[in-house]
Amino acid sequence: MNRKTVIVGGGFAGRQACHALRKADTEIVLYDPRSTTVMLPALPDLAGGWVDEKFLFQSLEKLLPKNVRHVQKAVRSIDLDAKTLVAGDETITFDKLLIAAGSVTDFHGFDQHRDRIYHLDSLESARRIRDDFGAYLLKKDQPHVVMAGGGYTGLELAMSLFYRARFAGKPCRVTVVDPGKEILPFLPEDKRKTIQSFLAKTGITVLPETRVTGFDGKNVTAGDQVFEDVFFCWAGGSTFAVPELKGTLERLRDGRLKVNPDLSLPNYPDVFAAGDAAAFDQNGQMLRKAVNFSWYEGKCAGKNIARRLRGEQTKPFRPFDAGWVIPLHGDSVGQLFSRIWIRGKSGLRLHYFMCGFRNYNLSNFAGFARIAAKLFKKEAHYED
Q1: pTM
Q2: What is the CATH number of the domain that holds 88?
């Protein structure tokens, strides 16, 4: 065996690819700087202190096939034409490559006191929000969360923090700042109005067509308003996780790589992309970023790499949309099988059940199953 298949990223897509390749005639090397993997959809709940973090992660060593070598380094550059990548100070050559590095927060060039801005794209960032927001609540009688970004991540995190403050006996002001004309524009008007009504009744202020233009480490300027001494969070979108990628390819605005039906890159038949790194066109629309799609894209890409290694024809990825839920702690909106609309507690229970179903072991599943059954009527898991 002298062929090397490199997988960049040990998330849902990368791990599934590893399992699909475990019997292939190739050396399999996974590059991921972390020793664990994390249940990303539950990060807002961890950030708010509602979920014990032990239910969100598992050691990669326990999840990967024995013949996969995990190199705990971040890939910072990929050259598709040279078939090399750089991780740390090492340059590595590959025969086959899967790019499944996920995504990271996109600040869109905003760099004022970025070290004081809270964002949510990892277990570490969720812990930081949980701990620092607890400290903020202790010193502030009138806490105020300013959220840059009114997408699903921004709203989930905002509501998680809002309810945590209320649980602690401190009514919390929340201001959501978003450059779009309206939040959640992909929703039908009646469903969007339902969520807007819930936010308004809860006391959440949404400022559409507004951008954050200043942050001095304590005070936020948005439009013509200045919000003083706030807990400032950024959820204004995500972008491709690898800093540098060289080659002839097409990308979306968020950095995702346009792929062929079999998830290979045009012009590069030995290179595939999956999960949040891939832009897959289904009937003229790009698949949204979602755990379910990442899971099956990784599996399909791994099988297609194995087919390439055997000299066989690859097969197209055929996505199945089981549905989605936007959990807002006290309400939800979602859709099953692109047909059935759900909301309220039913949506919340489904969200937490799915966080358990796609989790990494029986203990993690049981933890989320209990949350799905009880929701958060009597307890939170953080410590003040």
Answers
A1: 0.93
A2: 3.50.50.60
